[in-house]
Amino acid sequence: MTLTTHPPDAGETAPAPRRKGTLHRRRLVGNLSAAAIFLTPALTLIIVLRLIPVIQAVNDATHTSLPGSTLPPSFVGLDNFTALFSSHAFWSSVQQTLIFNVIVNPLQIVLALALAVLLTQNLPATGIWRTLIFLPAAVPMTGSAVVWGIALRPDGPVNAALTGVGIHQQPFLTGQGQVVASLILIASWIGVGYWMIFLIAGLNDIPTVYYEAAAIDGAGPLRRFWSVTLPLLRRPLLFVLVADTVSNFVLFAPMQILTDGGPQGKSNFLMYDIFHNSFELADPHTAAAELLVLLALMIVIVAVQFRLLRSVEES
Predict the structure, then answer these.
(1) Which residue, of 27, 113, 213, 262, has the greatest Cβ tally within 10 A?
(2) HSE on the CB side for 36, CA within 13 Å?
(3) Residues in contact with 73: Cβ distance below 8 Å, sequence separation at least 6, in sequence order
(4) Dist. CA 296–CA 61, nearest whole Å
(5) What would you measure as the largest C-alpha separation in the chain, in angstroms?
(6) What tens digit of pLDDT does each residue of 248-283 get?
(7) Helices then strands (H, E): number in the chain?
(8) pTM of this prediction?
(9) Over the range 262-291, which residues count as b (16 or more CB within 10 Å of their CB) and which as e?
(10) 110 exposed, middle or buried (CB, 10 Å; 0-12, 13-18, 19+)?
(11) Which residues are paired to 63 by β-bridges?
(12) What's 63's DSSP letter?
């Protein structure tokens, strides 16, 4: 018996690949459409809230006008930056900003890490302590600044307590040697609880098998912290470092409410000086130039920190 096979008819097999290709294209178009729908709000916000203000700042920084004048601003190129860089007050503001950040950033991260480690040790009432420590971050910064302004004023409760133990009243917000320390205290009061939450999440993500293996090897608590906790917590720590740096560079409310940039410019940080030039001296062009300098400074520092993050990942 002879079996005969017929070659597949071209007219019957041809539509299969076409249907497959059409289905693939439809899926691709559907995925692209879904991506566009989900990304459009974020891209719109980035353009409206980030790119357009930066473009406007560049435009303002290269123009000048008389305060209150109705004439259009005139183009001056980089003259605003030249005047800014030759100003002693500007460099003093940069110096005060850097000193504040060099002190407050490590302090906040160390305190937040210590509290995060402590509150992941199954202590009694851990939830209540976490809530109490995080509570200042839930209060508007203006409210926290007002509360600390009352606490630290000459006739406030802190000075009353110091007087009660025989210590003279301290000029916390009016003394040149104490105002930066007072602002560091206020910024840390607001920020430590917030960053602690991120570090607690990072600690909870560390598998317990590493601690069990270290305990079997005879490692004590300090050894487990240095050899297990810190290496596995580097990514959350570096995220907190970057976010905390940006947050403290743009800190504004405590200076505007409590010190007005004083005394003698000791709390005249860059963010407050931008506000001072723009709204109190009616010089938005110098303020825009100063804002771009602040932006460049933050980009450089954050780029170094991200470079550090990449080095840790590679290692």
Answers:
(1) 113
(2) 6
(3) 60, 63, 64, 65, 285
(4) 14
(5) 119
(6) 999 998 999 999 888 888 899 999 999 999 988 888
(7) 16, 2
(8) 0.82
(9) ebebbbbbbbbbbebbbeeeebbbbbbbbb
(10) exposed
(11) 75
(12) E
